[in-house]
Amino acid sequence: MKIVKFGGSSLATSEQIEKVFQIVTSDVERKIIVVSAPGKRFPDDIKVTDLLISCAQLSLQGKDYSKEFNQIIQRYSEIANGLGLSEDITNEISLGIELSLSSKKDHPARYMDAVMACGEDNCARLVASYFQLKELEASYINPKEAGLFVTNEPGHAQVLAKSYEKLFELRKKSGILIFPGFFGYSEEGHIVTFSRSGSDITGSVVANGVKATLYENFTDVDAVFSVNPAIIHNPKEIKELTYREMRELSYAGFNVFHDEALIPAFQAGIPVNIKNTNNPTAPGSRIVKERTLSNGPLIGIASDNGFCSIYISKYLMNREIGFGRKLLQILEENQISYEHQPSGIDDISIIIRQNQLPVELECQIINRIHDELDADHVVVERDLALIMLVGEGMRHNVGTTARASKALANAGINIEMINQGSSEVSMMFGVKSFDEKKAVQVIYEEFFSKSVI
Amino acid sequence: MKIVKFGGSSLATSEQIEKVFQIVTSDVERKIIVVSAPGKRFPDDIKVTDLLISCAQLSLQGKDYSKEFNQIIQRYSEIANGLGLSEDITNEISLGIELSLSSKKDHPARYMDAVMACGEDNCARLVASYFQLKELEASYINPKEAGLFVTNEPGHAQVLAKSYEKLFELRKKSGILIFPGFFGYSEEGHIVTFSRSGSDITGSVVANGVKATLYENFTDVDAVFSVNPAIIHNPKEIKELTYREMRELSYAGFNVFHDEALIPAFQAGIPVNIKNTNNPTAPGSRIVKERTLSNGPLIGIASDNGFCSIYISKYLMNREIGFGRKLLQILEENQISYEHQPSGIDDISIIIRQNQLPVELECQIINRIHDELDADHVVVERDLALIMLVGEGMRHNVGTTARASKALANAGINIEMINQGSSEVSMMFGVKSFDEKKAVQVIYEEFFSKSVI
């Protein structure tokens, strides 16, 4: 049994949903279909989920949301018409969304979640209706009835362990099951969504629950690329990668697959196949537990910017038990999560995402570090980028650091930071943001253009 | 005014003390002399301080210490005789040490400190007597009267700020002042020692107090070497280095100068000149605030072994605010200080000195990390060495990492860890202990044999 998840672009139009139908019916193993909300039809289009968010926000502010609401209904209506479905389904969808929008607003975050979930929920109803119209045995599955229970953290739901056992029951149902992605139910019965792009999580959870043989994740690219195609033209595709390689790549700029979504599949040992709705015969990229190391030391290069470092120096810091802990405590009290902490003898730098550190908070934190830790110097440096080199082959390969740092040096790029030594499958270089693109290019050149792969 | 400190080997015999006399009298600026206790005369010799420690330990156990006591008196007696001093001084020293040894033992650590301090204190008395015999105006200075006040932490005294002002008064005294190193007095009037080799600290504190123009530190080597001579035969000498370069080198294996001793001199901007009692005309090594960068990117390579890493992995660790802080809390509660923390996305390694982690404690800590942090994996890896590349030139030099990592790769040495990015003047590579020597050799070869210096 295969779980097949389709992303927003695969459900954006009736033509796309027709492709979904073809894909599902071309393999009898494709039993449970998890759907996102309709996504963008063209680059400047607005996703249904974003329209729903606008509606909910306006509604919470007591403002008129009819324009956005009509845009949503228009989207569903166009799809329904294109698929040859009757007006009834559009009317039902309209009523359902209006009902959500007029529900209680005493918990704004909960209200938000309930409205947002309409995107996937109605898309699932619509797809089920279309499949039925095509005389396929198909039914919409409600996540509550299916037993997808989650923690009561609006926008950040975590699956409760008991869900898996309950979801296993889905195996007994006949026909194709259309399951809305992105949300589950709290034990109190409220709709709670996963973080954005969370339909990937739903697919993975369901795959784990029913002990699927494969979790197919249909999106709009042929494969996971070894590097961001916006930086390298026509980069090498990754045919097979391990869960942890995918996780490391997802961290910095690889948004093909929601990184939290790997866990349930990983735990059940279910391979994930990233495929393209628009080119379903392409083999795509398989995410597996182990792979043969037929490529070079690297499988991919990821990068992300918008980081800053807080540099703290204090003479004899390294003799002071508790210094690092107190420093992290100050960050924690300000709800700041940190990424890395390179350290010298008497100094330490904390790398964080700089959107967590507005200037006002920066001043407060600098003052606290000075006052409470008696630091000699505290300096914040902004606009850093992290370049992540990922590959299982790295462990067996002396000289990866030398090749990467040489490539950067030859390009005149200064390495602000290196973090290597904990992960067996990744190595991280910090550079100035303005060097990010160049850095990725020269490392790609070194490992992917030169090596025999 | 110059402060001149002589180490134990410079005071080990009457011949050495004669050299001290020549050095002091050859420069009228050499006004305050700080002395260690008599050190080793030959490699297997026992330092007077070590004999004093043995006496104090035996005494605390209620055992006979007469053998060690006699050895100590014998040392002083031989020196006194060699210098042509009368028996009186040896008898005074003998009485003084006996008095310390028979003092109250209700605070063993305090007792220990009082006995240990006899080594320097009597050496200062002896040197002063000799200088007087040579008809030089010279006097022994008692640290209590001079105002060297410290915290009441036996074996780990920290200078109290008020000392500096009081020490400034020493400028008014005429003649040469002989000041015993290694200890000060608590505000309650107890003798408290600095950490071992703490005479360097006394010299630096006094230099700061009297606002000296130079702090000369006489030892038994011509200069600070760029690398451990036990690893590289006849290595390059360092003529000039900055305070922070010296501090970084001291951390890992450079024991020429006590690293805590740099602070007072650094704070007052007083240059430190490391010189050789046995070759006083050699220029030695100057430690200064800023230097011209006439050498390559590196000034020295230090290394040390006996480290281990605690590797912890947990899926989605990097989203968990507080994970790192809780981890450090566990270490802190076990009084473990850590050196570095390289981190991946979902894993972190804590590098610590492995003498802090006996097997029993290792098990306890692994269990706590599993239980309290819900970690997926916790693995301890022992026998790591850290190689530290130090140099102010590094900041201005793209490619240092590339050269170093290439040299290691060419030698087939796997880099277990890289820590770079906080300190501007150092970069650290972690390798297996068995690779330490080789790693230092190839990096030395790369930066000191090839580059034009």
From TrEMBL, chains A, B:
State if Translocase is listed as a keyword.
no
Q: Which InterPro entries match?
A: AceGlu_kinase-like_sf, ACT-like_dom_sf, ACT_Aspartokinase, ACT_dom, AKIII_YclM_N, Asp/Glu/Uridylate_kinase, Asp_kin_monofn, Asp_kinase
Which keywords does UniProt give here? Amino-acid biosynthesis, ATP-binding, Diaminopimelate biosynthesis, Kinase, Lysine biosynthesis, Nucleotide-binding, Transferase
Swiss-Prot/TrEMBL catalytic activity: L-aspartate + ATP = 4-phospho-L-aspartate + ADP
Q: In which pathway does it act?
A: Amino-acid biosynthesis; L-methionine biosynthesis via de novo pathway; L-homoserine from L-aspartate: step 1/3; Amino-acid biosynthesis; L-lysine biosynthesis via DAP pathway; (S)-tetrahydrodipicolinate from L-aspartate: step 1/4; Amino-acid biosynthesis; L-threonine biosynthesis; L-threonine from L-aspartate: step 1/5
Q: Which PROSITE patterns match?
A: ACT, ASPARTOKINASE
Q: Which residues form the signal peptide?
A: none
Reported EC number(s) for this entry are 2.7.2.4
UniProt entry tagged with the keyword Transmembrane helix:
no
> What EC class does the entry list?
transferase
The ACT domain, residue ranges:
389-453
Q: Which GO terms describe its molecular function?
A: kinase activity
As for family, the record states: Belongs to the aspartokinase family.
Family annotation (NCBIfam families): asp_kinases, PRK09034.1
Q: What does this protein do?
A: Catalyzes the phosphorylation of the beta-carboxyl group of aspartic acid with ATP to yield 4-phospho-L-aspartate, which is involved in the branched biosynthetic pathway leading to the biosynthesis of amino acids threonine, isoleucine and methionine.
Q: What is this protein called?
A: Aspartokinase
Organism (species): Gottfriedia luciferensis
